[in-house]
Design a protein that fits this description.
228 residues, 3-stranded antiparallel β-sheet, globular
Length: 228
């Protein structure tokens, strides 16, 4: 099957030309538009999550040969979480080539963090099945790039850091309020607002309440740092 111009351009953005184009089409097809004759990317996402995890674990061990498991674990989590995967997806404009059902498209599916994170994992799996592990590893390391070297900063527990910031200034601990929930029951998307007594607030969206709270805390910390 020949790929359309949009997917050919996407191949250029990720630096891989598919020998089996059907794999890429499957990777960018969301469940909202799948059919008995056209699968979706959920199975590929399952596989891609595991390939990504192995590559990142290997990369972290190589980058810091003396780091204990307790140090490596939060770094690993920071690199493979949906928020990071979605950021990578945005870097390569993956949302532009997703095949979505009408309702998902109308609700802003091309920008949803959980959807983008799943899709980039599906693309990783498609590359792995198309060209093998070494090619998939090269793709991941290239797309994640400097995120791997600066992971120590990203691995900070943002909720703990925000609470310490508030306590140091005599403020009450931050609160986290769910302001929206979208998506189906099997793949909900949460929007959480992190708030301080002083009125400062920041919001974030993720596929779990925990990830959304962490992302909101991180966004509020960044806002506070800019204000000082």
């Amino acid at each position: 099957m020949k790929l359309g111009a949009d997917l050919q351009a996407f191949e250029g953005r990720i630096g891989h030309s598919f020998a089996k184009p059907d794999l890429l089409i499957e990777a960018v097809t969301h469940a909202s538009i799948s059919s008995p004759t056209r699968g979706d990317n959920q199975r590929l996402e399952f596989l891609g999550d595991r390939v990504l995890g192995l590559v990142m674990a290997e990369a972290l061990l190589e980058a810091d040969k003396g780091a204990p498991e307790g140090t490596l674990a939060p770094r690993f989590n920071a690199l493979v979480r949906k928020e990071t995967c979605a950021d990578v997806a945005r870097d390569i404009a993956l949302g532009d080539v997703l095949r979505l059902g009408r309702s998902e498209m109308m609700s802003g599916g091309r920008r949803k963090q959980a959807l983008l994170g799943d899709a980039v994992e599906a693309v990783i799996a498609a590359v792995y099945l198309d060209a093998g592990f070494d090619t998939a590893r090269g793709l991941i390391l290239r797309l994640w790039g400097t995120r791997i070297t600066r992971v120590e900063e990203d691995a900070r527990d943002a909720k703990t850091a925000l609470q310490e910031w508030a306590q140091a200034r005599g403020l009450a601990p931050p609160t986290y309020v769910e302001t929206a929930r979208t998506g189906p029951d099997h793949a909900p998307v949460f929007t959480i607002a992190a708030q301080l007594d002083g009125g400062q607030t920041a919001t974030a969206t993720a596929g779990s309440k925990r990830d959304a709270q962490q992302a909101a805390a991180k966004a509020l910390l960044a806002q506070l740092e800019q204000d000082t």
